[in-house]
Amino acid sequence: MTRRAVPLFALAFGLAAAATAGAQQPAPPPDHSPQVGTMAPDFTIPGATRFGVLAQPVHLADLRGKTVVLAFFIRARTKG
Fold first, then answer.
1. Which of 33, 43, 47, 64 is the most exposed place for a label (fewest CB within 10 A)?
2. How would you class 60 by CB atoms within 10 Å of its CB: exposed for 0-12, middle for 13-18, buried for 19 or more?
3. CA dihedral over 68, 76, 74, 58, signed as positive or negative
4. Where are the beta strands (DSSP E) in 1-80?
5. Are 54 and 47 in contact (CB under 8 A)?
């Protein structure tokens, strides 16, 4: 092998490896997050206060025009 053949072979191998590596990258997952300013879909959830669960469920449609903050407490009312 001549001195000139080694760098050309290395260059060809490097380019082939780079092309293969780029083709194997998975596509990023689609973004399903809501955009700023879009209206939330209507939903119904059981409401709760510090005294317990409310008798009537809460409908988002009943709160239109008001500021709504949803808070989730994963271990609330559990032994964990």
1. 33
2. middle
3. negative
4. 44-45, 48-49, 52-53, 58-59
5. yes
